[in-house]
Design brief:
The chain has 114 residues and is α+β, with helices and mostly antiparallel strands. 16% of the residues lie in helices and 19% in strands. The strands form 3 sheets. The chain has a 3-stranded antiparallel sheet, with no helix packed on it. A hairpin with a 3-residue loop joins strand 4 and strand 5. The radius of gyration is 13 Å and the shape is globular. It binds iron/sulfur cluster (2 copies). The site of one iron/sulfur cluster has 12 residues, from loops.
Length: 114
């Protein structure tokens, strides 16, 4: 886990968080609550709130840059799990929120927001 994430949340309020619809609970074995997603393509959905500007996932609670958590942490998508604190995407999102870059080795964002 990265300590940075608990006081950040920038990646949940910057990118369009999209993934295969089968990861939603509309499909057998899916986990992400379908009510929190919107269709963006015939086979892809996105977390509500992330397909707009400014972007902010509806599952994100708290204040970006201060204290945040993911209200569906255990059910989040593979896309969410891919972001690593300190990786390129992370620091791109942090820059967009005027937060300093994470310079540690990339660590799983997981427990932040999780
Ligand atoms: S992965 Fe990076 S941008 Fe996302 S919450 Fe963690 S520190 Fe912030
Ligand atoms: S980790 Fe949680 S709050 Fe962040 S984009 Fe994914 S579902 Fe939304």
């Amino acid at each position: 886990m990265s300590d940075h994430c608990q006081s950040c949340g920038a990646c949940c309020a910057h990118f369009r968080v999209s993934f295969y619809w089968g990861e939603s609970d509309a499909a057998q074995g899916g986990s992400v609550p379908a009510r929190l997603t919107i269709p963006i393509h015939s086979v892809y959905v996105a977390m509500r709130g992330t397909d707009q500007h400014p972007s902010r996932c509806v599952a994100l609670t708290g204040k970006v840059g201060e204290a945040v958590s993911c209200s569906i942490y255990e059910q989040r998508s593979s896309t969410c799990k891919e972001v690593m604190a300190g990786d390129e995407q992370c620091n791109k999102a942090r820059r967009a929120h005027n937060l300093s870059p994470v310079i540690d080795q990339p660590q799983e964002a997981a427990e932040i927001l999780c």
